[in-house]
Design brief:
CATH topology: Hypothetical Protein Tm1070, Chain: A
Structural class: alpha+beta
CATH architecture: Sandwich
Radius of gyration: 17 Å
Strand order of the largest sheet: 6-5-8-3-11
Number of domains: 1
Number of strands: 12
Strand content: 25-35%
Length: about 210
């Protein structure tokens, strides 16, 4: 059974993911990071192994059960300022710095001081996650992603700040939103300037910090 929505072909299972995300490892998750002039925010991502796992280990997308975590960063005015893709192996841990990886080379001249971050997990194609954020499809959605992030918030005393870490929130992915994510990302990559393409994840976790 296949359903065609906005020129996207979805298998029955992919449609179920899009309409009824599961709380533990939803393929589509969202959170925000604020007060970036006061300090950095970080993202830590792992893979539960829901798509499979082997006895072999490694950090590349070619490892059995790996997923591609596609990262999309939006300014508060809805402009997609960066996108990139990270391979995440079963039981692995990778991380991103919002300031050093997501907004260090934005598509827009103005660097936002707060952002919305969207993560979309897809199956690996051809043993690589390179460019997958621009071509992610509903049929390729993959379970197994778990993610956490920090944000800097103002303290009770003026001029002071604290750091809060919470899990990303699972969300429902519409066909229109998927088209928006990938179309804007495709433009960022295709313009060839490098602006709007964020850095890929590094192995290991990042702790909370502030300036």
């Amino acid at each position: 059974m296949k359903l065609r929505i906005f020129a996207l072909t979805l298998t029955a299972s992919a449609f179920a993911f899009a309409q009824n995300p599961i709380t533990a490892d939803s393929p589509y998750q969202i959170r925000y990071a604020s007060n970036l002039t006061a300090g950095d925010s970080v993202i830590n991502i792992s893979n539960t192994g829901a798509t499979g796992a082997a006895l072999t280990t490694g950090t590349s997308a070619s490892v059995t059960g790996s997923i591609c975590v596609n990262v999309y960063t939006f300014a508060p005015d809805e402009q997609e300022v960066s996108c990139c893709s990270c391979p995440v192996t079963p039981n692995g841990l990778v991380s991103l710095s919002v300031k050093n990886d997501l907004i260090n080379n934005t598509l827009t001249p103005a660097v936002p001081t707060s952002v919305v971050i969207k993560l979309l997990a897809t199956r690996v194609a051809g043993g690589s996650c390179s460019g997958s954020a621009a071509v992610a499809s509903a049929a390729a959605l993959a379970p197994g992603m778990v993610a956490w992030g920090t944000t800097v918030h103002a303290g009770a005393v003026a001029g002071t700040f604290g750091v809060t870490e919470t899990a990303f929130t699972p969300a429902t992915l519409s066909a229109g939103e998927l088209t928006k994510l990938t179309t804007f990302c495709s433009f960022n990559i295709a313009n060839g300037s490098g602006f709007g393409v964020c850095n890929s994840c590094r192995a290991g976790g990042l702790g909370a910090s502030k300036n």
